[in-house]
Amino acid sequence: MAYCKLRREVAYYMKRLCKEALTTSSGGNISLRHGEKVFITPSSTDKSIMDEDDVIAVDLEGRVLESPKGLKPSIECAFHLMIYKSRKDVSAVVHAHPVYATSIAASTAEIENTLIAESYAILGKIAYVPFSIMGSPELAGDIGRAVIGSDCVVMRNHGILALGKNLFQAFDRMEVAENAAKITIICKEFLKGKSVHLPEKELKGIDRLMGR
């Protein structure tokens, strides 16, 4: 019964990513760790209509333990598992392709994370990794190193990654990252020279507030 609940949660947040236009029906992936099991979305399916039986259980080495519909785990399974090995405090991973944040990922720009207190509080330091082929060991290795000090990663020419202690926290970070990207583009392109960053003193105060 507990596993059914976890599968439903993964399916719910995957559908919510699509509903809120944070990814496409075929793009993005979500996982949730429970002990030595990881519940992850499948590859080659319409994720906007997925249900709990689409969600696959793998062990921390990527071996399939349960797949009610005989589906294969996401092509990005390797970097999900690498994150869980690198960060014992993380139990949920959300990867998506939100338009504004991914536009920044497809450039040399960065998300300005010190314009709004909320985005700095929720996201902290944002990491950036160079492009590697989807599902490759190189991508998994780069991400495994990047997440050691960050809960949000911009994957160049690819998308965005958010981590959390639970799926709500990871999903929230994805939403906040996309909003921060929108604010960045508005401030840089439409309010040129008029945006104001939070001063270092206030950033340190937010870090203390968030226990960082």
What does this 3D model show about the protein?
The chain has 212 residues and is α+β, with helices and mostly antiparallel strands. It has one domain (2-209): Class II aldolase/adducin N-terminal domain (L-fuculose-1-phosphate Aldolase), CATH 3.40.225. It is built from 7 helices and 8 strands, in the order H-E-E-E-E-H-E-H-H-E-H-E-E-H-H. It has helices at residues 2-19, 77-86, 99-105, 117-123, 137-146, 167-189, 200-209, and strands at 29-34, 37-40, 56-59, 64-66, 92-96, 126-129, 152-155, 159-164. An 8-stranded mixed sheet has the order 4-3-2-1-5-8-7-6, sandwiched between helices. Strand 7 and strand 8 (159-164) form a beta hairpin. The longest helix has 23 residues, at 167-189. It is globular, with a radius of gyration of 17 Å. The chain starts with a helix and ends with a helix.
Q: Topology, pairings included?
A:
Layout: H1 2-19, E1 29-34, E2 37-40, E3 56-59, E4 64-66, H2 77-86, E5 92-96, H3 99-105, H4 117-123, E6 126-129, H5 137-146, E7 152-155, E8 159-164, H6 167-189, H7 200-209
Parallel strand pairs: 6-7
Antiparallel strand pairs: 1-2, 1-5, 2-3, 3-4, 5-8, 7-8
Helix pairs in contact: 2-5, 3-6, 4-6
A few lines on this structure:
By secondary structure, this protein is α+β, with helices and mostly antiparallel strands. The protein is 40% helix and 17% strand.
Q: How much helix is in the residues?
A: 40-55%
The low-confidence parts are none
Rg over alpha carbons = 17 Å
| β-strand number | 8
Strands of the biggest beta sheet: in what spatial order?
Answer: 4-3-2-1-5-8-7-6
Strand content: 15-25%
Major β-sheet, in short?
8 strands, mixed
Shape, please? Answer: globular
**Mean pLDDT level:** 95
Compute the number of helices: 7
Give the class-level CATH name: Alpha Beta
